[in-house]
Amino acid sequence: MRAVRYEGPGAAGDVLRLVEMETPAPAPGEVLVRVRFSGVNPTDWKSRTRVGMVVPWQIPNQDGAGTIVGVGAGVDPARVGQRVWLFHCASGRQYGTAADFTCVPEGQAVPLPDSISMQQGAGLGIPYITAHGCLFAGGDISGSTILVTGGAGAVGHAAIELAHRAGARVIATVSSPEKAAIASAAGADVVLNYRVPGFLDDLRAAAPHGVDRVVDVAIGANLVASLSVLRPHGVIVSYATEESDPTIPVRQLMTGNVTLAFVVVYGFTPQAIGAAVGDISAALAEGSLGRLPEHLYSLEDTASAHDAVEAGALGKVLIDLGE
Ligand SMILES: NC(=O)c1ccc[n+]([C@@H]2O[C@H](COP(=O)([O-])OP(=O)(O)OC[C@H]3O[C@@H](n4cnc5c(N)ncnc54)[C@H](OP(=O)(O)O)[C@@H]3O)[C@@H](O)[C@H]2O)c1
């Protein structure tokens, strides 16, 4: 099969190489998937630059979509031919989705409804599972008010959609009219540009009774704004790092009985992953999940795809593996 892989950390153009290699065989409990689209996330380029690789080579990219073409022992052979979306393919595994085929435990190959395109399926894994964990770790959010910062980012967009679907009122922040349109289409009730003068006043006006939970892409940059609208006993969930760690105003947080929570999707419990997959599948079947703008690259051009994500491309960067 064709695969793009790297043998050590470095810049995309320096270390990502297109190779021919043997197609993996599914181990017991695994499925072999013909990848149609590979989804690229920030985690994929960040992992590629991390020193201390413990394997001799790595095929990048956690997310994807394709068709099951083989099953290992213990997996129902009726799954062959099933269209699936994939998550966590390169988590503790060498076979990411930047290849014609990948093998994953069968639970990481989730049936994709016929109504949903492979492109959309390849963009689900990391963003939607992360967003789900940020929203629902404390239980039901119906009737609550959620602030989603960076509402046109992949995780932010997913958080708006899932929170809206769950019956929450959603306030989203963005940095441009183009991003505002994306956040509104995802279901945000109020969208505010956090870079314009008067943003804090607009935020307080949009949430006169405060917000219950913040799903935050930049906790340090947004802390003053978040705390200005967070209700007592509110929760700020941070899922992204910044260039430097923030200073925490301990007394203010104590006074408000605020919870700061930090999540990483690779550490979610099987129960949290199962709940996310169940809700995402239900939302897909209902047709309540939309698509971000998509940017397609060939497998040969995987380095450019990684660079586009690193540069902050608006929308989903996908690698087209071909029919
Ligand atoms: N912990 C986890 O498990 C986990 C899972 C997924 C992703 N992540 C991390 O989360 C980050 C975002 O991932 P993504 O896939 O959603 O990336 P993305 O699609 O590039 O979106 C990032 C968004 O954040 C916005 N943003 C940046 N600074 C902001 C600020 N101060 N206030 C409001 N919005 C801000 C950006 O828009 P503007 O620049 O226009 O504001 C952009 O829309 C990455 O660092 C990624 O590594 C972590």
Folded structure, characterized:
The chain has helices at residues 12-15, 42-49, 118-122, 125-136, 154-165, 177-186, 199-206, 219-229, 250-255, 270-286, 302-310; strands at residues 2-5, 17-20, 30-40, 63-71, 83-86, 101-105, 109-111, 145-148, 169-174, 190-193, 211-216, 230-238, 259-262, 294-298, 316-320. The protein is α/β, with parallel strands linked by helices and 323 residues long. The strands form three sheets. Strands 3, 4, 5, 6, 7, 14 and 15 form a seven-stranded mixed β-sheet that branches. It has a six-stranded parallel β-sheet with strand order 10-9-8-11-12-13, sandwiched between helices. Residues 41-43, 46, 126-127, 130, 149-150, 152-156, 173, 175, 179, 194, 217-218, 221-222, 239-240, 263-265, 312 line the site of NADP nicotinamide-adenine-dinucleotide phosphate (NAP). NADP nicotinamide-adenine-dinucleotide phosphate (NAP) is lined by residues 41-43, 46, 126-127, 130, 149-150, 152-156, 173, 175, 179, 194, 217-218, 221-222, 239-240, 263-265, 312.
- Name the helix and strand elements from N-terminus to C-terminus, one letter apiece: EHEEHEEEEHHEHEHEHEHEHEHEHE
Q: Output the radius of gyration.
A: 20 Å
Q: Biggest sheet: strands, sense, closure? A: 7 strands, mixed
Number of helices: 11
Query: At CATH's second level, what is the architecture of the largest domain?
Result: Alpha-Beta Complex
Percentage of β-strand residues: 25-35%
Kindly name the structural category: alpha/beta
The overall average pLDDT, rounded, is 98
Domain Enoyl reductase (ER): 13-319
InterPro entries: ADH-like_C, ADH-like_N, ER, GroES-like_sf, NAD(P)-bd_dom_sf, Zinc-ADH_QOR/CCCR
Keywords: NADP
Pfam family, one: ADH_zinc_N
